[in-house]
Amino acid sequence: MENEKTLGKTSAQLISKLYDENRTIFKINHAQKILGKSYSSTVDLLRDLVKRRIIIRLKAGKYLIIPQEIGSGMGYVGNWYIAAKEVINSPQYYIAFYSAMNYWGMLTQPLLKIFIATPKRQVVPREMKGKMIFVTVKENTIWGIKEEWIERKEKIRITDIEKTIIDCLTFPQYCGGITEIAKGIWIVKEKIDQKKLLSYLKRQKKNVVVKRLGYLLEILNIGEPDIYFELKKYVKDRYDLLDPTLSFKRINKNNWRLVDNVGQKQIKDLVRF
Q1: Radius of gyration of the chain measured on its C-alpha atoms
Q2: What are the pLDDT digits (tens) for 184-232?
Q3: CA distance 110 to 102
Q4: Alpha carbon 153 to chain centroid, angstroms
Q5: Global pTM?
Q6: Do 125 and 190 sit in the same domain of this protein?
Q7: Distance (Å, rounded) from C-alpha 155 to C-alpha 123?
Q8: Do 231 and 190 sit in the same domain of this protein?
Q9: Would you say residue 232 lies in a domain?
Q10: Is 1 a residue whose pLDDT tops 90?
Q11: Which is nearest to 175 in space by CA: 230, 269, 101?
């Protein structure tokens, strides 16, 4: 039986030329230009290459070459960050939440899916379901974004460390919960710009986020005395859940008016504090 990754003359011409151009992600019209074939013939060829796992379809009209050494290529999307950039339709997109934590070295486990924030509602392409999560955000929350070189010729938009922390504390469901965020903060504690973090909190204007951060910093014994003084100003009468991804239960008392449904001991144990 012929190996499913054996390339015919036409397929080899296409893949070889794309590699020569350092173009592992390409569109139908570019493949058509290389091959000099009709649009329908090119689409048929690409469909066959997808079936044989030579390439994968990122979304309608856009494909990614699977390196031959990968094997079957099941689940392969290349560089997660570049794949996200190529799939999303909004120039205001940014890599966020769990994926931003991964980029800044705040995780202790591999990235299995990528989270992309966008002000423009978009449906995840069928091929990327389970691999990409699109989170719709308001335009006035898009700040604290950096452009980072991810490869020699590719930049991505991603939240900086401080905005990543704030976003994760705002939406713990996109970050693995409060314990995952606590571990991430502990890992990058020396890199956090506390003045920037405080200015971001004032801009965010969400008391619950301030309280979650203050409580975690206190448990982890991170932060200058001044930052606690400033954060305490946001503690009002209302009580909020520390981790909204978990059920309601009160484990530890605190003066941040948070219902601690995680437990200080668990947080400290997880970061080996």
Answers
A1: 23
A2: 999 999 999 999 999 999 999 899 999 999 999 999 999 777 888 889 9
A3: 8
A4: 20
A5: 0.84
A6: no
A7: 23
A8: yes
A9: yes
A10: no
A11: 101
